[in-house]
Amino acid sequence: MNKKKMIRLTALVGVATATGVVAEANQAHAATTTTTETTNQTTNASVESTQAAVDAAQSAFDTAQTSVDNAQANVTSASNNVTSASATLSSAIANKEVATSENIASATSAVSSQAVVVASASQAVSEQAGVVSAAASVQASAQAEATSASASLSSASANVASATSALSAAEAALTSDQSTAANNLSAAESAAVSSDQAAVDNAQAAVASAQAIVDAVAEVQSSDVINMSAAYITALKNYLANPSSANAAALQEVAKGADYVKELQQKFKSDASLDVVVDPSDPTVQEALSVYAVNLINHLRNQYGLTTAFGASAKANVAALDFVKNYYDDENWNIFGTTGSDGQGHNKNGLNAYADQLGTSIAEDAGSGLTTWVNGKATMATTTLHNLLYAVYSDIATMLFDDGGTNNWSHAQSIFEDGTILGTDGFNNVYLGVAFDKYGYAHYELYNATEGNQLGNNAYSLDVQTAAQTLLTNAQATLASAKASLQRMTTNLMVAKAAVVAAQDQLAALENSSASDSAAVTAARTQLESAKTSYQTALATYQQKEAALEKANDELANVQASLEAAQATLATAKAKLAELEETVANLTNADQLLAAAQAAYEQAVANLTVATGNLEAAQVDLAKAEAQLALAEEAVEQAKARAEIATQVDQQLNGSNANDRQSAGQDATSLKTNGRALTAMVATASAANPKRGADQGRLPQTGADNQEASAMALVGLGMLGMATGLYGYKKKKLTK
Is 176 helix (H, G, I), strand (E, B) or coil? Predict the structure, then answer.
């Protein structure tokens, strides 16, 4: 609300009235001065008083304006509430109309169906979260391995740089040590001949050893078989079909326990040709052992009535060696301990981890192997081919006939089950790997070979003679290669000797060269080559780990995406369920919802009525406050005008001296007040007492802000007349 008032005030004020001064024609100047000063103080106090009233009126107006604004906001809010309540009421009426028993039953059924969907989606999220957790674990492990490999690569690279620098320094120190080089050449030539000759000797020994293995293993394999009685087979089948305590006791009775094992072990053929010292991890020996063990087992399976056979391969043997090294030797895992009863047992965590690594099923049997029990302590027997073959034969016999107690015939189960081993499915193509740990115990790893893990590729021939002949053929090829190498080295030696003779004259002058410098160069070169080899190994490992990390990252990203999709599906299903549940609740409680909506609507209407009344009252109060403010402002302007007139009179009186005021007439004196010309006329005064009085009136309003009034003389005995101008002011602008 914008309002503007313009008040034009035209005042014609007598001197005595305007200033409170009674001026007599014959009054002294000093008395006149004192009177006008008092009048000025009075008018100024009036201005201050009326200004305080304006301030109070302004404060009241502001308060009223705030009340109106608040009331208007309340009306708006109440109106919005009425609109909202009306919409809710309409919705409740519509809900009531469709709240039939059929619709409620249908909505309830929909809730039940959707609850099943939510449960299924929740289960999917839980399962996928498990997959993500597993993938994150694999990724973290791959990240750690990649980080370690990167550090190793950096270290190896630094070693190469250091070795290169050392070689450069050594070569710089070596000036011309040709005499020492000639001596070193001669020594190297002799060493080369000796080395190649040793290689030939070793190859010939390998051929002899292979020939011995061929002869001995063929003989042992044909004679060392384990035969089961019909009663044992029947008892074993009964037990495996129903592992009850009664069937276990019957099987133990038929098997004869340790006595029968000793009987079988005594049947093992001992041959002097088998007493050759061998390395159990040598691929040739491993092949002989795995073929020997598989033939023993397959012979037993045939007796049992099974047509499927176990196989053996180099890859299965390599996997067995790798597993035993990582999870038994490196972890110092002693499966039997020092007495046979204080061991750690199978490394089940290692089996699970290695099965995951190969992506296949693994079962493990273990035996005492090379260890014999003497005075309660395990000692390592001499590692000969005889020891190894006997260990395999004895272990398999023990698994059959001395495996009751806590083992519950589990070793026999692993030999005679078909398609499953120890209750675990996925053994339809079993390949056996044989390895010995650092404590001398034998491990028989049963793998399910697939196209993916390729554990059955390049399988060994199970024909003993063929397998042994292959070993012999390989050994003979090694011997031939060594002989050819010796011949080449001999030829090269002759050429080198000729070159040495031709260079003797050139080397003679350099005999005093430092031998130590040459040795330093040689050592530096050796160190550099070693560092380069280590670097290449570290680089290969790093590349492998980086590839594994990238694969793990991709897999983690894929399963996380699947988890997010499952979570989104669950969220959608939950939202749908909540919507359906709300529908059921609305239909079921239609009467209550309608009543509540009706009451809320009526209350909102009542609140709007009250708010509207409060707004109207506040607007009335605002109008009153506005009027009071206008009156107060008008009063302060009038007070200011009177104060200005008093000031002009004082200036006029003080401008004339006493003698001039006593004369019969005075010249008109021009004065300027607020930019207007003020003409004061001095009238002839009589000696009589002056008449106190003043004429004051309002001139007609013309609408002009700067209207001038005609000068008028105040005529009277002993009075001084003056004319005042027209004063105008604008009241402050009120905005609502």
Answer: coil
CA dist 217 and 389 (Å) reads 9
Read off the pLDDT of each residue in 598-624 and give the average, rounded to a whole number. 95
Contacts of 248 by beta carbon, 8 Å cutoff, 6+ apart: 239, 404, 408, 409
Model confidence at 522: pLDDT above 60: yes
β-pair partners for 211: none
Cα separation, 144 vs 191, whole angstroms: 46
Contact 229, 255 (CB under 8 A): no
What mean pLDDT comes out for the span 105-121?
A: 94
Rg (CA), the chain: 61
Q: Is the pLDDT of residue 723 over 60?
A: no
Higher pLDDT, 16 or 274: 274
CA dihedral 213, 215, 217, 219 (to 10 degrees): -160
d(CA 61, CA 54): 10
Write out the two tokens for 285. Answer: 């020996």
Distance of alpha carbon 265 from alpha carbon 259, whole angstroms: 10
The number of C-alpha atoms within 13 Å of 327 and in the hemisphere containing its C-beta is: 24
Query: What does the pLDDT read at residue 290?
Result: 94
**């109070």: which residue's tokens?**
56
Find residue 448's DSSP bridge partners. Answer: 430
Q: What is the mean pLDDT of residues 613-626?
A: 94
Locate all alpha helices (DSSP H) within 367-463, ordered by sequence: 385-401, 410-416
Q: How many CB atoms lie within 10 A of CB 60?
A: 18
Tell me the residue type at 658. Answer: A
DSSP state of 459: B
What does the alpha-carbon distance between residue 498 and residue 502 come to, in Å, rounded to a whole number? 6
- pLDDT at res. 448: 95
End-to-end CA distance of the chain, in Å? 4
CA 248 to chain CA centroid, Å, is 55
Q: How many CA atoms lie within 13 A of 534 on its CB side?
A: 17
* Nearest-5° Cα angle at 481, 479 to 485: 115
Please give the average per-residue pLDDT across 445-461, as a whole number: 93
Task: Extract the tokens encoding 709.
Answer: 């009034």
Tokens in use for 628?
A: 């009071």
**Phi-psi group of 440: left, alpha or beta (phi > 0 → left; psi -120 to 50 → alpha; rest → beta):** left
Helix (H) or strand (E) holding 669: strand 666-673
Q: Return the pLDDT at 215.
A: 65
Q: What is the 3-state secondary structure (H, E, C) of 232-257?
A: HHHHHHHHHHCCCHHHHHHHHHHHCH
The two three-digit tokens of residue 602, written as one number: 């009526």
Rounded-to-integer distance, Cα 548 and Cα 545, Å: 5
Question: Residues 35, 663: contact at Cβ < 8 Å?
Answer: no
The predicted-structure confidence for 134-183, as pLDDT tens digits, reads as follows 999 999 999 999 999 999 989 989 998 998 998 888 778 765 555 555 56
Q: Which two tokens stand for residue 230?
A: 């019909």
CA distance 112 to 577: 9
Q: Six-digit token pair at 319?
A: 């996997």
Q: Read off the pTM.
A: 0.42
Summarised one tens digit per residue, pLDDT across range 663-676 is 444 443 443 344 34
